[in-house]
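Cont'd.
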Amino acid sequence: MYAEIISVGTELLLGHTINSDAAYVARELSALGINLLYSCTVGDNPERLEAALQTALDRSDIVITTGGLGPTGDDLTKETIAKTAGKKLVLHQESLDRIVEYFKGRVMGESQKKQAMLPEGCTVFPNGCGTAPGCGFQTANGKTMIMLPGPPSELIPMLKNYAVPFLAKESGAVIVSRIVRVFGLGEGYVAEQITDLTEGTNPTAATYAKDGEMFVRVTARAKDEAAASALCEPVVDELQRRLGDFIYGIDVESLEELVVKELTRRGLHLACAESCTGGLLASRITDIPGSSAAFQMGAVTYANEIKTLLLDVPEETLRQYGAVSEQTARAMAEGIVRKSGSELGIGITGIAGPGGGTPEKPVGLVYLALCDGKQTWVRKMPGNNAKKGRRYLRWLAASNALDMVRRYLFDLGGLEEAAYTAKNI
Amino acid sequence: MYAEIISVGTELLLGHTINSDAAYVARELSALGINLLYSCTVGDNPERLEAALQTALDRSDIVITTGGLGPTGDDLTKETIAKTAGKKLVLHQESLDRIVEYFKGRVMGESQKKQAMLPEGCTVFPNGCGTAPGCGFQTANGKTMIMLPGPPSELIPMLKNYAVPFLAKESGAVIVSRIVRVFGLGEGYVAEQITDLTEGTNPTAATYAKDGEMFVRVTARAKDEAAASALCEPVVDELQRRLGDFIYGIDVESLEELVVKELTRRGLHLACAESCTGGLLASRITDIPGSSAAFQMGAVTYANEIKTLLLDVPEETLRQYGAVSEQTARAMAEGIVRKSGSELGIGITGIAGPGGGTPEKPVGLVYLALCDGKQTWVRKMPGNNAKKGRRYLRWLAASNALDMVRRYLFDLGGLEEAAYTAKNI
């Protein structure tokens, strides 16, 4: 089975948007064992889109388009595909109802309605995060066409929940994927450790890097789910043997999800005092539904006087060691535990840059402290990551804080092991 | 002048790598006034690459390849291009010297040498960050071929320093783009208001939606920058007439950047007390470099007792009106102003979901308060956005808070106008 992706959007050809959709779709195709031979991008131009569609339908079995399903006049993907594939566009009442419901209590433009017009007889992919539904159908000469919306927030869930099952059904196989999430080791390093595992074809194992973490995706194809899961198992076990407690979870979403779940299960509470991360840690924790059971208070103490006012960080400590120091991080963590009455407290202070660095305290230097009311542990992120940028450094600092809580909760040790936290990332 | 990009690399078709190179190249082309009509990706496969090259050379004047210039066996771009364009590969001594120098003191594999083999008579683009040089040349029938390396760290500088100057000689025009950013109106709604403007060809105007905001990009092409800017101006002016103060900035990055800049310029400070946004507002503000000048303190008061402890929200208020109420938001904003000594304070309380909603207080209901020490304004986000999900609701709440600060700072009024804040978003 050969597939081809056609990404539609003038913004892609102007370089205003990086085409991440193609990569998301490509990953799912390779997990399905479908060969992607070409991926191409055309603008919001019906003639060129039609030409690209013709070429794709001639040389591939499956053609997947991303983008161009919106309400505006230059969103022409659906009309052009219908024309090229010789399909009529008909109103899909259920989609129209969804769109009307979506705009309930708000003004809905007439143009929104055209999003409910879909190729006759197609399988509709509902859009849970936006208005434009996607769809899949067979062309007259047995090719498979799939249309997906452009915004990643709409494409990613539709891909997983509707397009992949649609394709799997066509290939008559069931796919099972396991995600093995790793914090503290880089993709390049892990890839070297598991080369033999990544050479398999069923199950496949592939490494990915994202936001200072990496993960391994193990995917197997079989006649039913049980058989596919059984194929994945030995590889997942071997990964656990080789990567040990750098693996923070299998099929979990994120460090914050893992930490919130375990805190909740144990009836523990976490509070955090943030300087350089400026609320990012609290924001990541409270992104998890139900986090209020485990999280009561966060303090963003950007100014020194606020560190003293809110967390009783001694002015003497700030004067003697500076705001970015092990001592200040420690005092912040201990202060937030006292203040919040939570069992666990995090303190984070560092230099996120781009300014504010010195030879002694370079951009990227971050001290993280975890206090459990009896003991306080401090982890140091060396400032050797400056060129990664402010956003990345703040994210990595918050991730390190979550990793310290994880290692504390699961009694893994390594809370203070600074070396590896930046190593290979 | 029509251009086409061919990205070479199996890792792109497996989705292991997101193709950012194509976007970098596309931006430079559009800045040069060169029309990019197609961008396609092929694997490390000589037959398919040759086919793609043939197609590209038939329909475009300029063909730019990225990737496949490395030393390994599957790096076949150069060989394939030379074959397709009927060019001989010859040793470029200067490039070989560079490569040898690059490996000085390290083992240099024989295979590295093949990177110094380049099409006869080409213009060589030295690689300042790696080993593989790029190049540009004219084919027998007057088409322009350009080869660039895949790693962005090598491609980006080579593009700016060598490829763009090489191309500039072949193009007369310059492109200017203006970004008009809008908060409080949806893309569909705006698109209908400006249909006539989006039908132009020079300048063009296109609408985009992102994270609960929308923006209009106005792009013009002319012989020089002044002329291109002059073409954009009337359209930008007309957009301002039609969209008024829903436009929060032109060529600014984000609401938070605008707010931080204006606070800093005026020597004012903002503090925020967050419940449902859980630190997201503070995190977005402190994402802006230099925000410490305008931001001193944030409080994430998730639990009721913390609202009282930290912000002196009267227990009576919480009991009588509930944590999610206009009164509590007001008390939070006033409390954070008192506590932080900042001139401006924000209070946010709401129901981000997915759980916790009731008929009276549905998921998505958020109260936002802004206090300047003398007066307090409250904006209400009605709970009709539940489907958008927790992450989106939190983001939109933080954006509304920033919009209130913007309207306060620029004296625009509408601080409390709840209706439109969710309308059409």
